[in-house]
Amino acid sequence: MAFRGTEKSWADVKTDLRFNMVPPGEYLRGVTWPRGAVAHAGFTEGLASVVAGLEEHLKPYAARDYPIFFTGHSLGGALANLACLHFEQLFRSEIGCNPIAACYTFGAPRLGNAALMGLCKTPVYRYVNAADPVPKLPPEAYWIKFGMSLLKGMGVLFSFPRWVHWIQRKVLGLRSYCHQGSVRFLLPVPDTSSVEEMSAHLKTAPSLVANPSTGFQVTSLWSYVLRRRKMRFVKDHSIENYIIKLHWWTKRQNADQGDTVRQADTRKNWRELNPVAAAEAVEGAPVEP
Predict the structure, then answer these.
(1) Taking Cα atoms as reference points, which of 84, 111, 91 lies closest to residue 19?
(2) Domain holding 241: CATH number?
(3) pLDDT grade, residue 178 (50/70/90)?
(4) Confidence of residue 70 (pLDDT cuts 50, 70, 90)
(5) What is the strand order of the sheet 68-73 is part of?
(6) Which end of the chain is more exposed for a tag (fewer CB within 10 A), N or C?
(7) Mean pLDDT score, 23-44
């Protein structure tokens, strides 16, 4: 089940901008959400508008225990993650099993707080491309609160208008957004507008790192900035960029697996043609084909 990303429509923009956090049970009923769990209001309402149709479509497959996968890019990635959380609970309570096999997101923003994200038992794989800014949004409240705390401390020395203190109270009361799942970080590539040049680079260069540390990501991005002297955030967020990188990474992976299979076939054929030598090799004699 695939969810599309943000399109050039005011409705999608409003969905993205409604980043206040609400209990998901206000919109997504029929399942029991843990106490304290909150999610992005726009994403939650967006999924609620289609959840009835999704349930009708997916239930026959869930009843036969067919594996169900959710995926999406950008806004669609957040909806896919939330759908995974919702249907995992729904099917477990109504059918007694969880047919959700995995969730794959590409350039997805943060969805909710730790109480919500810790609920999901289904594997979630988050693909993040180089300088794509969307996975950094909405920002974690930690850094905002830290800045506001510094501002509050400065208030002892300086006099601020009332509206500054109002913002401080609102921000310091925020519940923090966080991500869920296993990260697949797509490394930066040389600056080029040519698909052919990018593809030529990706044929040989390493392009994907699983679960990199924050320090690794920051270091990669700074070297990226210094090389390019500018950052094309929109380009790095585009699904086309994700597709090109994953295409070549998958092609290289398949080629490596093919080499392994061919080597295994060669060894098997050698054993069949040289049974005596193969037997001696098993006993410990260093025999080479």
Answers:
(1) 111
(2) 3.40.50
(3) confident
(4) very high
(5) 2-3, 68-73, 100-106, 124-129, 182-186, 208-210
(6) C
(7) 89
